[in-house]
Amino acid sequence: MKKTYKGSCHCGAVRFECEIDLAEGTSKCNCSVCVKGRFWKAIAKADAFRLVHGKDALSDYTFGRQAIHHLFCRRCGLKPFGRGHMDELGDFYAVNVLCLDDAAAEELAEAPVRYEDGRNNHWESPPAETRYL
Ligand SMILES: [Zn+2]
Question: What is the pTM of this model?
Protein backbone atom coordinates (compact mmCIF):
# COMPACT_ATOMS: atom_id res chain seq x y z
CA MET A 1 0.00 0.00 0.00
CA LYS A 2 1.35 3.39 -0.95
CA LYS A 3 2.13 5.68 1.96
CA THR A 4 3.10 9.31 2.05
CA TYR A 5 6.58 9.71 3.51
CA LYS A 6 8.45 12.81 4.53
CA GLY A 7 12.12 12.80 3.68
CA SER A 8 15.11 15.07 4.07
CA CYS A 9 18.86 15.36 3.71
CA HIS A 10 20.99 15.31 6.87
CA CYS A 11 20.99 19.02 7.68
CA GLY A 12 17.33 19.54 6.80
CA ALA A 13 17.90 22.12 4.08
CA VAL A 14 16.28 19.75 1.58
CA ARG A 15 12.85 18.35 2.43
CA PHE A 16 10.47 16.36 0.28
CA GLU A 17 7.38 14.21 0.37
CA CYS A 18 6.60 11.18 -1.77
CA GLU A 19 4.09 8.39 -2.15
CA ILE A 20 5.85 5.04 -2.17
CA ASP A 21 4.98 1.44 -1.40
CA LEU A 22 8.15 0.02 0.11
CA ALA A 23 6.67 -3.47 -0.04
CA GLU A 24 6.51 -3.13 -3.84
CA GLY A 25 10.26 -3.15 -3.86
CA THR A 26 13.46 -1.18 -3.63
CA SER A 27 16.72 -1.54 -5.51
CA LYS A 28 20.46 -1.30 -5.21
CA CYS A 29 22.80 -0.92 -8.16
CA ASN A 30 26.50 -1.58 -8.62
CA CYS A 31 27.17 1.29 -11.05
CA SER A 32 30.04 3.65 -10.29
CA VAL A 33 27.97 6.32 -8.56
CA CYS A 34 25.45 4.14 -6.70
CA VAL A 35 28.11 1.88 -5.25
CA LYS A 36 30.26 4.71 -3.91
CA GLY A 37 27.25 6.33 -2.26
CA ARG A 38 25.67 2.98 -1.30
CA PHE A 39 22.50 4.37 -2.81
CA TRP A 40 19.42 2.35 -1.82
CA LYS A 41 16.41 3.55 -3.72
CA ALA A 42 12.72 3.30 -4.38
CA ILE A 43 11.18 4.77 -7.50
CA ALA A 44 8.44 7.40 -7.37
CA LYS A 45 6.78 8.75 -10.48
CA ALA A 46 6.98 12.50 -10.86
CA ASP A 47 3.38 13.04 -9.71
CA ALA A 48 4.12 11.13 -6.48
CA PHE A 49 7.02 13.38 -5.46
CA ARG A 50 7.09 16.93 -4.11
CA LEU A 51 10.11 18.99 -3.18
CA VAL A 52 8.89 20.83 -0.08
CA HIS A 53 11.99 22.88 0.67
CA GLY A 54 15.53 23.38 -0.52
CA LYS A 55 15.51 23.91 -4.29
CA ASP A 56 18.44 26.33 -3.87
CA ALA A 57 20.30 23.92 -1.57
CA LEU A 58 20.43 21.19 -4.22
CA SER A 59 23.43 20.70 -6.42
CA ASP A 60 22.99 18.68 -9.60
CA TYR A 61 25.62 16.12 -10.60
CA THR A 62 25.47 14.29 -13.91
CA PHE A 63 27.98 12.11 -15.70
CA GLY A 64 28.25 9.80 -18.71
CA ARG A 65 25.11 10.16 -20.79
CA GLN A 66 23.87 12.90 -18.41
CA ALA A 67 20.61 10.96 -18.19
CA ILE A 68 20.23 10.95 -14.41
CA HIS A 69 20.42 14.01 -12.21
CA HIS A 70 22.15 13.00 -8.97
CA LEU A 71 20.96 15.72 -6.63
CA PHE A 72 22.73 16.36 -3.39
CA CYS A 73 22.59 18.95 -0.64
CA ARG A 74 25.42 21.44 -1.07
CA ARG A 75 25.52 21.94 2.70
CA CYS A 76 25.60 18.40 4.14
CA GLY A 77 26.46 16.41 1.02
CA LEU A 78 23.65 13.88 1.34
CA LYS A 79 21.88 12.65 -1.77
CA PRO A 80 18.21 12.36 -0.81
CA PHE A 81 17.04 11.63 -4.36
CA GLY A 82 17.93 11.67 -8.01
CA ARG A 83 15.67 12.21 -10.97
CA GLY A 84 15.52 11.16 -14.57
CA HIS A 85 13.34 10.05 -17.43
CA MET A 86 12.73 6.62 -18.88
CA ASP A 87 10.31 5.70 -21.64
CA GLU A 88 8.62 3.08 -19.44
CA LEU A 89 8.25 5.36 -16.41
CA GLY A 90 8.16 8.88 -17.75
CA ASP A 91 9.74 11.40 -15.40
CA PHE A 92 10.70 9.71 -12.16
CA TYR A 93 12.50 10.22 -8.88
CA ALA A 94 14.86 7.69 -7.33
CA VAL A 95 14.37 8.28 -3.63
CA ASN A 96 17.04 7.36 -1.08
CA VAL A 97 14.87 5.25 1.22
CA LEU A 98 17.23 5.88 4.14
CA CYS A 99 16.35 9.59 3.85
CA LEU A 100 12.68 8.85 4.57
CA ASP A 101 12.35 10.26 8.08
CA ASP A 102 9.13 8.50 8.96
CA ALA A 103 9.85 5.06 7.50
CA ALA A 104 10.05 2.58 10.36
CA ALA A 105 13.13 0.38 10.67
CA GLU A 106 10.90 -2.67 10.22
CA GLU A 107 9.42 -1.30 6.98
CA LEU A 108 12.91 -0.79 5.58
CA ALA A 109 14.17 -4.14 6.82
CA GLU A 110 11.23 -5.94 5.21
CA ALA A 111 11.31 -4.07 1.90
CA PRO A 112 12.28 -6.41 -0.94
CA VAL A 113 15.55 -5.44 -2.61
CA ARG A 114 16.21 -5.98 -6.30
CA TYR A 115 19.86 -5.83 -7.40
CA GLU A 116 20.85 -4.19 -10.67
CA ASP A 117 24.03 -4.73 -12.67
CA GLY A 118 24.37 -1.10 -13.68
CA ARG A 119 28.13 -1.41 -13.93
CA ASN A 120 27.65 -3.58 -17.02
CA ASN A 121 24.55 -1.73 -18.27
CA HIS A 122 22.32 -4.69 -17.35
CA TRP A 123 19.88 -3.02 -15.01
CA GLU A 124 17.37 -5.82 -15.60
CA SER A 125 19.56 -8.49 -14.04
CA PRO A 126 21.53 -8.78 -10.81
CA PRO A 127 25.33 -8.71 -10.74
CA ALA A 128 27.20 -11.88 -9.81
CA GLU A 129 28.09 -10.40 -6.41
CA THR A 130 25.53 -8.45 -4.39
CA ARG A 131 26.67 -8.91 -0.80
CA TYR A 132 28.64 -5.64 -0.67
CA LEU A 133 25.84 -3.48 -2.06
ZN1 LIG B 1 21.64 19.04 3.83
Answer: 0.95
